[in-house]
Amino acid sequence: MERSTRKIALVGIILLVVGLIAWIMQLTGGLLAGSNMTNVFLWGLMIAVFAFLVGFGAGSQFVASATILSGKEELKPLARIAGACGLACVCAAGVAILADLGAIRNALAMIVGMNPRSPLAWDMIAMCTFIVLSIVQLVMIARDARSVKVWAVLAGLAALALQIVEGLLFSTQTAHGWWATPIMPVDFLAVAFVSGFALILLIACVKGASSKALAWLGRICASAIAVHLVLALIDLCLMFFEGTPESAGILAAVGSNILLYLVELILPFIAMIMLFLPKNRGQKKPALVASILVIVGIFAHRLMLLFPAYNAPSLYLQLSGTDFTTGPYPISTGRYLDWDLTFANTTPYFPAGPEWLAMLFPIGLALVAAVVILFIMKKLQKDKS
Predict the structure, then answer these.
(1) 3-state secondary structure the chain
(2) Residues 221/201, Cβ–Cβ less than 8 Å
(3) How far apart are CA 283 and CA 201, in angstroms?
(4) pLDDT in tens, 46-98
(5) Nearest Cα to 205, choosing from 197, 196, 214?
(6) Is 268:229 a contact under the CB 8 Å cutoff?
(7) Spans of the chain below 50 pLDDT
(8) pLDDT for res 385
């Protein structure tokens, strides 16, 4: 095992252990008690991490499929790494969901009491399908099988379906205007390409990949960023020109989180410019900086999925027989205490300390899983030889 790989494994183990301890501590006192979530803001940091990891997992699989199908020798070493990262990230995302469920027994309800009409059920099926096809594809890569291109196509289609389902999961929630847009599934797909190519670009820089490989990864990543930014701005413009109380509430919620929103837009934009500049193509340092900017920006994007959705009122009081809207309905916060609000239109949310620490659990698991998967693939390759 290379020295850099051992360091990644060590960092992953540390993050995993710290996060696991924090999550167990959360469970002992109650998941909500160890967080700043409420009845109003009921999806917190762990769900943002779930969406973050799923995007990187599907995106990494897109890289793996593209490198295998391209047949280019300079890209061939990336297929193994990208496929391993894809499987590791999606598995870790599944763990993030299980951690967010609270009691372990709730995981059984996902299987025993699965509701086929629920978007969450589609998500679970899509993730399981992706994991199975990804494992088969990695075995085929390790064995250098003739059918590897077939499995690369199937795993790529599974990644495509996973991101579309993820986008539909949000866009079908009509009570949350920030999510309820047909642009959401398309943007999820674009963000997956941005995430996956940025992650593999970062790894390629560390591993010392060829300038041709860096240029190829950077070009596709920059193009995907452009698509994502256009879709994000179109969605914002449609919201602005809608002129309804609901859209005004969403814009107000976006405005209250404007710094985070600017991070989501500006950092990938800077990275896109860096990657598109002819003088930077195939250059390690600009590619490294750009990939880091993208990863930070995408994490902000996943957090921004939550704040405008939960802080934009979903119910408005309308005078009977008229089109006049007087204001939003307050809803229960779930906090029945003398010193806290019982009903509110919005709720301030910033992840509590235990949430930040518990978040390290799935992230550490993704790092460790990627190293283990690559190690197993290497053993399979040796066994064949």
Answers:
(1) CCHHHHHHHHHHHHHHHHHHHHHHHHHHHCCCCCCCCCCCCCCCHHHHHHHHHHHHHHHHHHHHHHHHHHCCHHHHHHHHHHHHHHHHHHHHHHHHHHHHCCCCCHHHHHHHCCCCCCHHHHHHHHHHHHHHHHHHHHHHHHHCCCCHHHHHHHHHHHHHHHHHHHHHHHHCCCCCCCCCCCHHHHHHHHHHHHHHHHHHHHHHHHHCCCHHHHHHHHHHHHHHHHHHHHHHHHHHHHHHHHCCHHHHHHHHHHHHCHHHHHHHHHHHHHHHHHHHCHHHCCCHHHHHHHHHHHHHHHHHHHHHCCHHHHHCCCCEEECCCCCCEEEECCEECCCCCCCCCCEECCCCCCCCHHHHHHHHHHHHHHHHHHHHHHHHHHHHHHHHC
(2) yes
(3) 11
(4) 999 999 999 999 999 999 999 999 888 878 889 999 999 999 999 999 999 98
(5) 214
(6) yes
(7) none
(8) 55
Q: Which tokens hold the place of 372? A: 């283990």
Residue 383: predicted pLDDT: 64
Which pLDDT score is estimated for 381?
77
Among 139, 166, 135, CA closest to 56: 166
Written as one letter, the residue type at 66 is A
Q: Looking up tokens 């109380």, which residue turns up?
A: 245
Structure tokens at 330: 């307050």
333, 342 in Cβ contact below 8 A?
yes
pLDDT value of position 45: 93
Which pLDDT score is estimated for 152? 96
pTM of the full predicted structure? Answer: 0.91
Task: Please give the biggest Cα pair distance in the chain.
Answer: 78
Nearest to residue 377, comparing CAs of 82, 153, 80?
80
| Token pair recorded at residue 71 | 């047949």
Residue 318 phi, psi dihedral angles, 5° rounding: -120, 135
Residue 161: Cβ within 10 Å count: 16
CB within 8 Å of 326: residues ≥ 6 apart: 317, 318, 319
